[in-house]
Each structure stands twice: as structure tokens, then as C-alpha cells.
Design brief:
The chain has helices spanning about 1-30, 85-100, 125-150, 165-175, 180, 195-200, 230-235, 295-300, 300-320; strands at about 45, 55-60, 70, 75, 105-110, 155-160, 185-190, 215-220, 220-225, 250-255, 260-265, 270. By secondary structure, the chain is α/β, with parallel strands linked by helices. The chain has a domain at about 35-220 and about 290-320: Rossmann fold (3-Layer(aba) Sandwich), CATH 3.40.50. Helix 3 crosses helix 4 (about 165-175).
């Protein structure tokens, strides 16, 4: 009996200590203010569709912040959409540059959101990463719902995102209803994975098979060799070559000197003739044989043209209904 009481008391003390530790951790963490997506300051937009014949592009930016500490010593695992430096990183370093090639002929919309810091993807545990990024994904879904409620739904829809933004695209495909999915010309998951589990959670993820199919998901990750696949972002079950829009191993030539070949086994792009040296390795996590940072830029001309092709294909199908 004495042993049972001792064990019970020991367990109670341990539980109390754990609760205190969790409460202490919660108090030392900072969660930035949520964005209000009815505020135009929470968006970067560009209207390049002077003929009203293009698509509405919803773009989700990637990861730009590391863990940071507030002035009162609290750690934060998320970007702050009201912080001028964080906004500049998201806007000037990526969103505006992507808009430069995605907005011509289209209407472009990209929300600021509380994206998870890079450390979320270095936890070496998929469940932990999912838990850490839930806040960011919720922001993106709220932003999309606002965007969708206010756009002209007779126009084709393009959803695109890079890295953490690619993760958000996958989550959006699970989030949208069938009516919204029917408006989808294509979804572009750049530099992130689509898993078998993702495909089981929704019937909205259909792998692109060619250049002009609609309602499909385009997914690719670039490596120098399949041995460099980064499992955090690159262990995917679907893939397509964005240069020749094939799903087999027929190589394509980009910019006259770069050979891009899809590995049908691993669903990643293997490139030769391109070093990616402009993207230095980050903490031995990315750009270490993979060329993660190149994804929205190396194939930008291919993406620009393909958005037009798929939007036109969607309109042609819509006109027949």
C-alpha cells in the first residue's frame, strides 16, 4: 500500500511539473496578431488582365523567417505580418518577383500570413511539423476564403505556392469544396511534396499528366541526383517535368544548356548543366544536392506559359457546358 501511495504521489508530482513546464513554455512563446484579410494591407495584388481573359492566381509565399525573440524575451515561431522587416522579406524578396511573371495576363493575389519559421521543418518529426504549421495553414485558408468570396467565379482559378507555400496549396486542395474545385484550372506545388495520405484525404488532388489538363496538381522538386532528395519537402508521390510536361524520363532542355529529367520512380527533377551555386546551403538542410531555392525561378518562363495554357483550356471546357 505504501508503495502504491508513493507511486501515485510521484506520478501526481510529475504531472504537476509537466503542466508547469508547459504553462511556462506557453508564457515564453509569442504568437503574432492574426491578419485581417479585409484589410488591403494584408495583400499584394496585381491586375495584368486588361482583356478580362486570364485567370485569377492565388499565390502563397514560402518561408522567410527564422525563430526570433520579442523585446520582452519571448520566442516566436511565426512571421509577423505587421512587422515591416517580415513584410519586406515576403513581399520584396519573393511575392513581387513571382507576380512579375504570374500576373501578366492574369489577376494576381498573394496574402501575407504568419508562416512558420524554418525551424518548423527541422524538427525531424512530421507530426511536430504539422502541429507547428497549423496556425500558418489556418491563415492561408482564411485568406483564400476571403479571396474566393470576392472574386469573379466565372474566371479560371490558379492556386500556386513555393515550399511552405506549396504545403499550403496541398492543404487548400483539402479545404475547398467541390464547387470551388470545379473552378480550378490548376494547382502548382513548387518545391514541396504530395504524399499518398494527402491524396486519400481529398479527391481534389489529381496529378497532372500533360501540358493542358485542368483541375490537376503540378508538383516538382529539383535535385542534382536522386540521392539528394530531401524527405521533408521532396518525398512525393506525384511529379511532372515543367519543361516538356511529361511524366516519363524523356529529358528536356532548358535555356539551351540545362537538361531536366524526371525520375518516374522518385517523381523528382534531376538536372545537369546547372549547379544552383547562387543558392548556398542553409544549415545543411536545403540546397545540399537538392536545389530547393530554385523552384519558382528556374522554370518561371515555363510556368508563365503553362498558366495561360491551362486557363485557356479551362475556359474552353467551361464554354462547352
Amino acid at each position: 500500500m505504501g508503495k502504491e501511495v508513493f507511486l501515485r504521489n510521484t506520478f501526481s508530482v510529475s504531472a504537476l511539473v509537466a503542466c508547469i513546464c508547459l504553462a511556462s513554455c506557453a508564457k515564453t512563446q509569442y504568437i503574432p496578431q492574426a491578419p485581417d484579410y479585409s484589410d488591403s494591407e494584408m495583400w499584394i495584388t496585381a491586375d495584368g488582365d486588361s482583356t478580362d481573359s486570364g485567370a485569377d492566381v492565388f499565390y502563397v509565399v514560402s518561408t522567410w523567417q527564422e525563430d526570433w525573440t520579442t523585446d520582452d524575451g519571448r520566442i516566436c515561431h511565426y512571421a509577423d505580418v505587421y512587422n515591416p522587416v517580415h513584410r519586406q522579406n515576403m513581399g520584396d524578396l519573393e511575392i513581387k518577383k513571382v507576380a512579375a511573371y504570374m500576373s501578366p495576363g492574369n489577376r494576381f493575389f498573394a496574402p501575407y500570413y504568419r508562416h512558420a519559421t524554418i525551424e518548423a521543418f527541422m524538427l525531424h518529426n512530421e507530426d511536430s511539423t504539422r502541429a507547428r504549421t497549423r496556425l500558418a495553414m489556418d491563415d492561408v485558408c482564411r485568406a483564400f476564403d476571403y479571396f474566393q468570396a470576392h472574386r469573379d467565379k466565372s474566371r479560371p482559378l490558379i492556386i500556386a505556392g513555393f515550399s511552405q507555400g506549396g504545403m499550403a496549396v496541398v492543404e487548400l486542395l483539402k479545404h475547398i469544396d467541390d464547387e470551388t474545385y470545379n473552378q480550378l484550372a490548376a494547382a502548382y506545388v513548387l518545391g514541396y511534396k504530395v504524399t499518398p495520405d494527402d491524396t486519400l484525404q481529398t479527391n481534389h488532388i489529381k496529378a497532372a499528366k500533360g501540358e493542358a489538363d485542368t483541375g490537376v496538381t503540378i508538383c516538382y522538386n529539383t535535385v542534382k541526383d536522386v540521392k539528394y532528395i530531401n524527405p521533408v519537402v521532396g518525398e512525393t508521390c506525384i511529379g511532372i517535368n515543367p519543361v516538356n510536361w511529361r511524366t516519363d524520363s524523356v529529358p528536356a532542355t532548358l535555356h539551351d544548356s540545362i537538361t531536366v529529367t524526371l525520375s518516374p520512380k522518385y517523381h523528382v527533377l534531376v538536372v545537369s548543366g546547372y549547379s544552383g551555386s547562387e543558392y548556398p546551403a542553409y544549415k545543411d538542410f536545403i540546397n545540399v544536392g537538392d536545389i530547393h531555392s530554385c523552384e519558382p525561378w528556374l522554370y518561371s518562363e515555363c510556368l508563365q506559359e503553362n498558366i495561360k495554357v491551362r486557363a485557356n483550356a479551362w475556359r474552353a471546357k467551361s464554354d462547352k457546358k
